Known about the structure:
By secondary structure, this protein is mainly alpha-helical. 64% of the residues lie in helices and 0% in strands. It has one domain (5-93). The chain has helices spanning 5-17, 22-29, 36-50, 57-65, 70-93. The two termini are 18 Å apart. The relative contact order is 0.20.
Amino acid sequence: MPQCEYCLSAHTAIGRKAGLNGAEIEANRAGTSQDAKAAVAVHFARALVEHKGEVTNTELQAMRDAGFSEADIVEVITHVGMNILTNILGKASRVDIDFPKVSLKQAA
């Protein structure tokens, strides 16, 4: 997904508000998680983005094996799609960052 400082800043602030610490946010940015089940979901989300939805049967099965239901998988796919949309909107509209700014190169 194209990088967007608005999205990164917003997701970092929202993640912190939801209780994620800096190490977890940084792990998520790197495509993983400190939690084994969440790491599978983050990997799946990243695969969706990198392959424009063309995930493998192995990636789908990894989600199921980690305990995600079909509804959970659809929810992850939906969130990825919404994030792609907001990423495009943020970049194209050049919206002002109204969260604590996080640089694309800055660690969480």
